[in-house]
Every structure is written in structure tokens, then in C-alpha cells.
Predict the structure of Group 1 truncated hemoglobin.
Amino acid sequence: MSTLYERLGGSDSITQISSDIVDLHLANKAISTRFANSDLSRLKQSVAEFFITGTGGPNLYKGKDMLAVHKGMNISAVEFVAVLDDALAAMNKNGVGQREQEEVLFVLYSMRSDVILV
């Protein structure tokens, strides 16, 4: 059985999806202010590395865990859902299959307690 990483198309495809997710976040009124002062190229790289590592690809991610990244940000449930919506839209834009979309959303949702109101 192939890994989610492989089924998503590997590093190049996941990097494109990650870039699209960040672009959607920047356009999403519910969360765009969270990213207003970000180094976008670094943010896109970090998201891609996290996504690649988390789906079974090469272990590229050297950043903080989700709890450490989001601690003190007071992220709401509405903002969390906006992130999931953007991830789904980016996967749709990139032709990701239904099964893979469900797996990615399941993994993202499983991080909810490390993101919301921490």
C-alpha cells in the first residue's frame, strides 16, 4: 500500500498544495490577519515541510510542534474551520482524490486540541 505522501503526488505536488493553502489563508477574511506580518516564502516552505513529513514523505520538518506554534494565539473554532476549508479548497484545486482529502482533513482535525484556545 502506498503512503499518503505518494498518493498526493510527492514533494512537488504537496509543495504546490501548501503554497495554495497559504495563498487561500491570506485571502480568507476569517484568518488573513493572522498571517499579515509573516515571511511568506518561509511560511510556505514550513507548511510544505510539515505536510510532506506528516504524510509519510522525507522527514524535512524541523519546526516546532503544533502546540508550541499556536500557544498563546487564542485561535477560535471558527478560525480552525477556516483553515480546514482552505486546505480542502487547495486540495480540490490540485485534483486530490476524495479518499486522500478525507485522510488529510482527519489528520488536520486531530490536531484541533493543539491549536484551538491554547
Observations:
- The mean pLDDT is 95.
- The radius of gyration is 13 Å.
